[in-house]
Design a protein that fits this description.
Helix content is about 0%, strand content about 60%. It is mostly beta strands and about 120 residues long. Strands 1, 2, 3, 4, 5, 6, 7, 8 and 9 form a nine-stranded antiparallel sheet that branches. β3 and β4 form a beta hairpin. The protein is globular.
Length: about 120
């Protein structure tokens, strides 16, 4: 394998995908997102860049374990009991597969992500 196997992860090299709102259990007003999928790492696993506008989506069961590094903006993850954690630019976190709760994009945000089933 040579240097051509090294991939850049950004808006220009990723495949732009707007996830179907039907994939979520609830979509709040204002929700908007785009994934720039850069690489498939294994079966049902991928990585890339994500951009989102303020809004909320809820999950009865988060579909994968997701590692996130927030580049800009602010997001909150809220569990089914109302527990809340907020993250800002420069912070990294993991949302485990099966998590039940809400993702809130508090302000326009950009993150790098790896999602693994």
């Amino acid at each position: 394998m040579n240097i051509d196997a090294i991939k850049t992860v950004d808006r220009d090299t990723g495949r732009a995908v707007v996830p179907d709102p039907a994939d979520y259990d609830h979509v709040g007003d204002g929700w908007s997102e785009t994934e720039y999928r850069a690489v498939e790492l294994a079966e049902d696993s991928l990585g890339g860049l994500w951009e989102g506008e303020p809004g909320r989506v809820s999950f009865d069961s988060w579909p994968y374990t997701e590692f996130c590094v927030l580049v800009s903006g602010r997001v909150a993850v809220i569990d089914a009991a109302g527990g809340r954690r907020e993250f800002g630019a420069g912070e990294a976190f993991v949302v485990p597969r099966g998590f039940r709760g809400t993702w809130e994009t508090v302000e326009p945000s950009v993150k790098y992500f790896v999602a693994m089933r």
